[in-house]
Amino acid sequence: MALYDYAGALRRGRRQYQASVLKGEYPYLPVLDKILSHTDIVSEVGLGIRDIPLDKIVGTKTEGRTTAFASNFMPLLSEKSEFGAKWAFLYDHQIKDGIRDPIVVYEFMNQYYVEEGNKRVSVLKYVGAFSITASVTRLVPKRTDDLDNRLYYEFLDFYQVSFNCDVWFSKEGSYDKLIRAVDKVPGEVWSEDERAIFKSSYDRFSKAFHAFRGDDYDMTCSDAFLVYVELFGYETVKNRLESEIRKDLVKIKDELLLASGGNKIALVEQPEEVESQAESSPLRLINWLLPFKSNEPQTLKIAFIHAKAAETSSWTYGHELGRMYLEQVFGDSVQTMSYFRADTEPDISRSLDQAIAAGCDVIFTTASQMISLGVKAAIEHPEVKIFNCSVNMSYSSVCTYYGRMYESKFLMGALAASMAREDKLGYVADYPIYGTVANINAFALGARMINPYAKVYLEWTRVHDRDAHAELEKEGISFISGDDMITPQSPTREYGLYQKLADGTLKNLATPIWHWGKFYEKIINNMFRGGSGKKELKGKQAINYWWGMSADVIDMICSQNLPHSTNRLMGFLKSSIRSGSFLPFSNIIYSQDGHLRCEEDMSLTSEEITTMNWLAENVVGHIPSFDQLTEEARSLVRLQGQTIYETMDTEEERREDPGTI
Hints:
Number of strands: 21
Helix content: 40-55%
Largest sheet: 7 strands, parallel
Number of helices: 24
Radius of gyration: 30 Å
CATH class of the largest domain: Alpha Beta
Strand order of the largest sheet: 6-17-11-10-9-7-8
CATH superfamily of the largest domain: Response regulator
Number of domains: 4
CATH architecture of the largest domain: 3-Layer(aba) Sandwich
Distance between the termini: 58 Å
CATH topology of the largest domain: Rossmann fold
C-alpha cells in the first residue's frame, strides 16, 4: 500500500518537474544556503518548537537532498531506491501512528527551509496535512527598502505582540489594520489566550480559504482574512466554524476578487455614463441597480440612514431635503423613510435591519462610517441595493456616491480674492479625509487665480485645544470659508463664504450647494429606466458616482448684493467649469514643499484629485497629525481604508529616496 502511494507521489513530482522545466523555472527545491549567499543576515533567533503550516515550507536548508524532490516537495527518485523505501516507511508510520517528531527548519522572510525532515514534509504534504511540528530558527536580514523586506519587518513587529508566524500580507500597513480589526492597538502585547484564539480562528479560515480555491486569487490567505474580519467583525469570526467560513467566502467572493485586483475604483463622473456603460461597455452596471423586473409594478421603497438628526446636523439636514425632493419628483412611485442617530455600530445595524425588514428596495447610508456594515448587509441581502455617501472607498457589494464640491470651492476662492482688499483669506475645515483636502486646495487655487499674492489660512475644527475661528481672528482675517450649510437647531451666519465686518456682524457672500435631491433623482431614474440582461460590474471595480456642476448636483449661490462685474465673473467661471472647458486643477500647481504637482498645459486626473494628500503652496497651515485629532475625527479617518496619513508617509519616504519613485 505504501509503495502504491509512493508511486502516486512520484507521479505528482514528475508532473511538477516537467511543468517547471517548460516554464523555464528551477525544477527542484530552493536552497536557503544559496539564497543567503546574496543576503546580509543581522541575527539568528531560536523560536523553539512551533506548529507551522506546511504550505509555508518551500525548500531545504542545504543542497544535499534538493534534487530528490520537485519544487512541490513530491519525490523524484525511483520506487526501488533506498529513498523510496524510507519514504514508504514514513507513510505507513503516518497512517498508523502519525508523524510526531519535530523537524528542524530555518525561517527566512516568513518562509521555511528544512534542515532535517524533508521526507516527513513530503509525506505530510502528500496526505494533505495542514501543519507540522518544527524546531524553528529565524534568520533576520538586514533592513532594506525592498518591498518584501519592509513587509517582513512589519511582520516582525506583529510577531512581537502576537507570537504568530502564519500571517503574511502583500500590502504595507495591513498588519496594523489587522491589529485594529481584532480590537487591539499597535504595540499592545497579546495574552496567551488571545494568541490561541487568534491562531485557531486563522487556521480555520486558512483551511476554508484553500478549500474555496482561494489560491487562485492574486492575494495571500492573510489578505483575504483581513477582508473577512473587516466585513464580519472579529467577534463573529473567532466563533465561526470552518463550514460556516466556506459559506461566507462564497458570499464575499466579489469583495475578494476586488481586493485581489487592487481595489480599483471606477469613478462615474457623469450620470450619462451609467446608461452608456450599460449599453456598450463590458462593465455594464445597470443590472446592479435593478431591484425588480421592468414589467412589475414600479414602486420603490427607499430608506435613508443618517448618523445624526436633521435638527443638529447640516449634513443630515441637506440629505433630508434631498429625500423630500425625491418624494415631490416621483410622487406615488416611491415611498421613503428615514432613520436618525445611527452613529454607533449597534445603531447602524439596527437601522439597516429595520429598513430591510420594512421591505426597502434601496438604502442610502449617508455617512462613511456606515459602509462596512452596509457591505455586510448587502452581502446577506443581495436583493437590496445599498449605497454609501463617501469617496475613495473600495467595495464591490455597495455603490458609493459623492459630489465634486471642489468645483464650487474654487469659485468661492476666486470670489473671496476678488472682494478682499487684503491678501489674507481664511478657510475652516473639519477633519482631513479624501475630498476635504481637494476642497481646500481648490479654494486656494481659485483665490490665487484672481490675486497671485493671496494666502489661505487653514484651521481645523476637529483638533484638540485650538479654536479655529479665534485663530483666524488673531490674524485679522475677515473673508472666511466656513461650513457648507446652516444647522437648523443652531443657525449661524458662519457658513459658506462670509465677511466678518469691523462691528462683528457677518455678511454672507456665497454658499456652496449640495443638491442631494437631484443626485438621488438621477440614481432612481437610472433604476426605473434600466433594462435586463446586463452584466454586473461586481468584483471587478468599485463604483463611485462622482458628479459635479455638469450634473446639476453641485452649485454655488452668490449674494444679490455682489458688484455686477463680480457676478459676471462668477457666472463666466461657473459656466466654464460646468461645460468642462475650464478645470480647477490644471496648469502649474506646486504644493507647500515646493513639489511640482501639475505641469503646464496638464491637469490632475480624477484619481489624483480624490486621493489628494498635500496642500497648495499658498495655503498657510498644515494637515494635523493623527494624534492632534479628536477621538470622533480619528474614528472617521480610520474608515477611509488607506488613509491620507498612510499615503502621506509613503510619499515622504519616496521623496527621501528618489530612487524609489
